[in-house]
Amino acid sequence: MIKFENVTVCYNPHARHPDHAVEEINLDIKKGEWVFFVGHSGAGKSTLIKLLHGNPHTASHGIHITGKVLLEDIDITHLPANEVPFLRRKIGVIFQDFQLLAQKTAWENVAFALRVIGAPQQRIAREVPRALETVGLLHRAQARPNELSGGEQQRVAIARAIVNEPYLLLADEPTGNLDPETAAGIAAVLERINAERGTTVVMATHDHHLVDTLQRRVVRLREGRIISDEEHGIYHPEDDIKPSPEDSKSTFIEPPAKPKTDFGDAPFGGESLQNEAPLGTPENPIPQFNRPKG
Questions:
Q1: What domain range includes position 46?
Q2: Residue 10 maps to which CATH number?
Q3: What is the Cα–Cα distance from 60 to 62, expressed in whole angstroms?
Q4: 292 falls within a domain
Q5: 87 to 1, 76, 158, 201, 276: CA distances (angstroms)
Q6: How far is the first Cα of the chain from the last one, in angstroms, to the nearest whole number?
Q7: Whole-model pTM?
């Protein structure tokens, strides 16, 4: 479903000392799989999330990308700006800071994700309660964000991410602002979505407890490179430690021949994914146009 083929992302490639956000990433993720990306801040987790989410402005930011990123056998590495909205319609994104619309109810926040793609009212009336029920929050449908707890707000954000029935769910530190008990509840919701809907889940996280409890596939990153890829992995304490300048990438342990992955915390396009405005808002509008024929 997802394939990174020798992907390298470099900032200021013509500088004397170019900055490689990720290097030589090779990774395969199958449909329905759950994969954790772990590593120190700046390891490359958010960079790869952005590549999967589609970023049409890489060239204007002095970023050079080599290799290929394939999603459903489609090359999305250098996707034209006018094709990005179509890509994002089948990808759900969950942010650390929820990014809900403050003046809208839980129902309206979830419905907004369908309205921006022009979904008919009949579909909105059918899918919104289904999504809220999936996350256990249908009874709070008329509450606004300031009336909800942090865990409830994140559940609304998950409902918004899945209401369009995406085949891929990208989660960037979804439990980062939550206490352990609430985080466990959010993980349970995502597990149910993964199991019942077959949605592929790719999550960047620093949550030791979550990774160790679920024991899903864990891809570990260090300074833009994959250092291990474990089918039933755990969190290693050293994953939080950023290498000192004296450390050399040549000392890294190369991952096994199986797929490699990475999810960069390094800013891609100048800011992290969690700071990107929700799709369809004034800050991140969806172009109105017809899909090209042929």
A1: 2-275
A2: 3.40.50.300
A3: 6
A4: no
A5: 14, 9, 18, 16, 16
A6: 23
A7: 0.79
